[in-house]
Amino acid sequence: MDETYVHSNTLGQKKKKFLWKIDESSNIYIRRQFKNESEMRTERVTNDELNKINEYMKKGGWKDLANNVELLSTGAEKEGIGKFMYGLHPNTTYAQLSSHISSIFYNAGVWDWNGKERGMMFLINSGNWSEKTSAYYNKLLNDSSYHIK
Asked: What is the pLDDT of residues 22-66, one digit of tens each?
């Protein structure tokens, strides 16, 4: 797979823009801009981590986004996707990727979303997350308005 990223937005009230791609090994790369940085930062969520996130999603119904930076860093955040990701890597920047992964997986049909911009919750759908996400990525690649090299 080449270096082509596609445009997306997070689902919350602030709808932050980001770029992403999925490689042949089903690792997802997310490029985003931070307020106080001039360069875009590229972060990777590995296939193994994505498998663990989806295994977590299979346990017990709807899951909160739960990725508040202050609450994660103090240990006060409720159970949810961001807190689970924080457990994989105790780093709030990594846990914040839960907003981006949730958007990608919802739009790819991997997860359902409760439609709320505050109090966001997600539920896993059946099917192979990697195949669905790759198909969604390829669909966006075929629409030139969504990609950038």
From this structure: 999 999 999 998 877 778 889 999 999 999 999 999 998 999 999
| Residue at 128: amino acid letter | N
Q: How far apart are CA 143 and CA 146, in angstroms?
A: 6
pLDDT value of residue 145: 62
Please write down the HEC assignment for all residues of the chain: CCCCEEEEECCCCCCCEEEEEECCCCCEEEEEECCCCCCEEEEEECHHHHHHHHHHHCCCCCEECCCCHHHHHHCCCCCCHHHHHHHHCCCHHHHCHHHHHHHHHHHHCCEEECCCCCCCEEEECCCCHHHHHHHHHHHHHCCHHHEEC
Hey, where are the domains in the chain?
5-148
Residue type for position 49: E
In angstroms, the CA 52 to CA 98 distance is 13
Mean pLDDT score across all residues of the chain: 91
Look at residue 1 in the predicted model and tell me its pLDDT. Answer: 40
Closest CA to 65 of 83, 88, 90: 83
